[in-house]
Design goal:
Radius of gyration: 46 Å
Distance between the termini: 172 Å
Shape: rod-shaped
Structural class: alpha/beta
Largest sheet: 8 strands, mixed
CATH class of one domain: Alpha Beta
CATH topology of one domain: Rossmann fold
Helix content: 25-40%
Strand content: 15-25%
Length: 656
Amino acid sequence: MTAGPGYPMLALVLLCCLTSSTVEANKALKRTTEEEGAPRTTGTQLKNYLLEVLSGMRVRNVVVITSPSFDVNDVMASMWHQGLTAEVFRVSQDAENHNNPAKFRNKTAKEESFTWESVNWKFLYGRGPLFKSETATLVLGPAAWAARSAIEVVSRAVLGRWDSLLVVPVGEASAIYELPQHVQLGTRVAVIQELPRREKDKKQLACSGVVKEARLVGPRQYALTSVGCWRSGELSLEPHFLRPINSFMGSALRAGTLKGIQDVIVKRDGDKITYDGVFGSFLMQILNNLNVSLELEDYLTVGGLESDGKPEGLLGAMYTRSIDMCAVILSMIQARAQVIDYSICIVLYSAKFMTKLPQPMVEQFLLFKIYTWQVWCTILGFLCFSSIVSTILWGRLDGENTLPWTSTKYIRHAFTATFKTQVYMGSSHLPKSSPGRIVMTCTWLVVIMVVSVYNGHLTAFLSIPRMSKVPNTVREMIEMGYDMSISRGYSQYYKMKSSPIEEHQYILQTARFRQDVGLTPDQKYITEVLTEPVALLVSIVAITGIQDANSETVGAEQVCRLKSGTEPLFTQYGGIAYPQNSPLKEVIDAQLSRASSSALIKYPPPKCRSDIQIEKEKEPLGLVIVSGVLVLWTVGIALSMLVFLVEIIFHASTSD
């Protein structure tokens, strides 16, 4: 059969297709060969290097993080043979694997794609300090995978003070040199590498394997520094391998503060920065010892995790590790410990409520309060009884046979003579008998003493102002009908809420809740305390500031208008805080322990004076104080008019 003109073209197309298929097949085969050719096991030499380093570290437990298909059985067996315990976590797409820390974002997708961002590295949490100090975290696998996995671990800030990370890449890994730029401040990271054979052949005395440690070389700058070498089968390792950091080399710590809190006051003198305030001297000592500086950032609220899991405020910034620590003293409560780690206790204080300071009272019947009502009743009874006795013992007048107590005239004479003694008035009618005169003399003596005591007390009453009463204890606050103003979200609210004391729960049920921005309440809540029966519960940090801000000037003195109660509601412990599992906690806590060994931090008293002995300008007596006497005079006039009307009516009826 003869080929037509179109057959050569068809043959050419078929040849191209066959050639193309062969090339693609070769590429696919090459990719498969590369994947299959990637290291699947550690190798005897590198395994021995790893075991020798672990032996020098004196660890007992190893947490192994490896890839899905990497064989670690030989390594595990060798660890067990040396008496080490080990846990294996395979970062894979196998959701059925209980040791798989990966969390997939799309659970409904047919094919779940693995991403490094989906790995929850916090599975490394939950180990105590003692366990961590005897545990090494090991990233072991193919070189490229190990480098990427190690970068993920250190950049997610899951390594703490006692964590040690060993990275063992199997094969050549140029990406391992990117690891130092991701190391968080204070973490301990080392790399164990077997050198390529071509480098060994160049120089017989060269290292067959090296140990490199990530060390701080500048402000927040790490570099891999060679600290160990295998030469002729022996390991030469520096004695201070993976030592804890003791100098930050001028690094800047990001520290959070609360707006309006004077725990740390920044003072600038040109380029020189110093810190003052309650915590300032402690902080300066720590910064100098660790060669570190601060970058302060203010937050409006203490914050925490919202109901939807969103971090807010100062605690939220520590939860997300946006800051390295807080530079204010926080109360240590269990609710916050779920989000942050506290330092050692550096403050111990008693939480007290605030009320208005007792003020001088202007009372209408102040002149009558010199004696109690019981004394006034006793004086009145004494005068009446003296009048009756005087009437009985008055004596008969010359030429009259009428008995004194049967005569209205004698009774009137006896009563008027007795009651006139109260105003030092004499009477033209005196008792005729000696017993009656004795009674009158005794009455005068008693009246002189009563009036003298009254005059003395009157002077004292008008010289020393009578002060209003405010509650000093929880029981007094309840008895006097005071409400308590409490801010939600702060330590005082949580302490009152969890208190087993019945009085605290009663106060909480009748409390007025507010939401402060910062630790200082809004001015309207201060006004409530000054004008209404309301007590204010705030942080100990804010008490002195509130007292000074709401004081008044009297002459050359600042006089407080607010005071704290005498009875503490509860005792609180205070300290600074760090993000959870922070590698900086132990080193800063050690400095805090040295700084506070002499004494705990104490908050200074307010600048305003809260005593009531400050001399004020003397003011004349007002109408309110004198009005009590006028009221009594008005009552007497009304009573006399009533008697006058009764007499008129009675006289008219009898005359008819």
